[in-house]
Design goal:
two-stranded antiparallel ribbon; mainly alpha; 2 strands
Length: 52
């Protein structure tokens, strides 16, 4: 018997551990890509931080 877990987002249903793992891996990958883009943008910024 498979239990369905509903999170606060009604469009997401998890039927097993594999789906849950894939869901979080996608979230983490998206966050990592966004962070890398932000780091890249900051490294090219004209408003670089001065050493303290």
């Amino acid at each position: 018997m498979t239990k369905t877990i509903s999170f606060r987002r009604p469009d997401i249903f998890v039927h097993d551990a594999k789906e849950l793992k894939n869901f979080w891996e996608k979230i983490i990958e998206k966050h990592t890509q966004q962070q890398q883009g932000e780091d890249s943008r900051l490294s090219r910024s004209a408003l670089k931080k001065t050493p303290t």
